[in-house]
Amino acid sequence: MGRDISKSILLLFFGVIICCAIYPFVLWVVGQAVCPFEANGSMVKGPDGNVVGSLLIAQPFTKDEYFQPRPSAASYDASASTSSALSANNYALRDRAAHTLGAIAAYKNGKPVAPDLESWFREDKFQGNPHIVAQWADMHNGSAQGWVKADATHGAIVDGWAKAHVGLVAKWIKENPGTPKPAAADLAVIFFENFSGEHPGEFPSAVTRKRPDGKDVTTIEPVKEGADIQATFFDMWRQDHPQVDLQDVPGDLVTASASGLDPHITLQNAQYQLDRVASKWASDLKRDPGTVKKEIAQILDAASEAPWYGLAGERIVNVLEVNLELRKKYGAPP
User: Could you tell me the pTM of the whole model?
Assistant: First the structure.
């Protein structure tokens, strides 16, 4: 009995030493000797010498001068890798795609949809009924609540509205006795219903203005055009205009990867974004848009690759790698 126990303890000891010390050490040595860049996370540095990210993990880019990665259900958080797990008939999936398409959708002739969408929105009628914003909030409570939760300033706006509309809040509480002390998100639908009546053809959005001292100040104000309207109401516009033919977009432009962290996009996706990126850089640099577009197209071609050395799959580009090349070539955007 004692002999068996001593052998087991000895086996456990050697197992721990081999599996938890020797094996990891050998792998570390081989990795550092053969492929140190990959072994250390494929971390890359910007022009200033500081690490800006990993070529293995996607990250968001908000400026129009840069290419955008695929949508991420994990909000590009490497510690929370996940897919959206949304079914094809889930409105949240349609809504996310619509938010991406609103600002970039175009007709078959290349004309952008956004100006017509904003004109339609200002008419304040959806399927013949007035108050688009109220209808949006009634049909998609989750989206309305998501707007309130998306930014602390949005919640503050609803809180301020609630104090100024005590009667409406009291009526809401009476109809929802299970929530005697509603949070801002709970009042999202009634807030938008009231807002739609007071501001027909407008939507609350962030507006930045200069103060007398020259500093910028951002407030939430009713607006009749802009990115928020394009993104939020594209799906409703599309339902009101089902007969209109629009340009197709690459699938990975509006769909998230299984991990939510895919650092690559297809070359087709990058080329779809090329006009936006090139025109913005041309505007910043005061250069000919056609020339800048050709330069960036060359960067994309040089950076593109196909899996297994071209034997399988579409050509793809690493978003961070391409954006770093743009930064090196043109400097930092304003």
Answer: 0.77
Q: Residue 46: how many CA atoms within 13 Å on its side-chain side?
A: 12
**Which residues, other chains included, contact 73 with Cβ-Cβ below 8 Å and sequence gap of 6+?**
82, 83, 84, 85, 256, 260
**Mean pLDDT for the stretch of residues 257-264:** 90
Q: What sign does the dihedral 31-35-37-42 (CA atoms) show?
A: negative
Q: Is 105 within 8 Å of 115 (Cβ atoms)?
A: no
The pLDDT tens digits of the residues spanning 306-323 come to 887 777 778 999 999 999
Q: Which residues have a Cβ under 8 Å from the Cβ of 33 and sit 6 or more positions away?
A: none
Alpha helices in 129-226 (DSSP H): 132-139, 141-150, 152-164, 166-175, 188-198
Whether the per-residue pLDDT at 50 is higher than 80: the answer is: yes
* Structure tokens, 228: 């928020």
Q: Dihedral sign, CA of 216, 218, 223, 228?
A: positive
| Contact predicate 236/113, CB 8 Å | no
Mean pLDDT of 101-113: 91
Residue reference for tokens 């394009």: 230
328-329-334 Cα angle (round to 5): 80
- Measure the CA–CA gap between 252 and 268, rounded to whole angstroms: 9
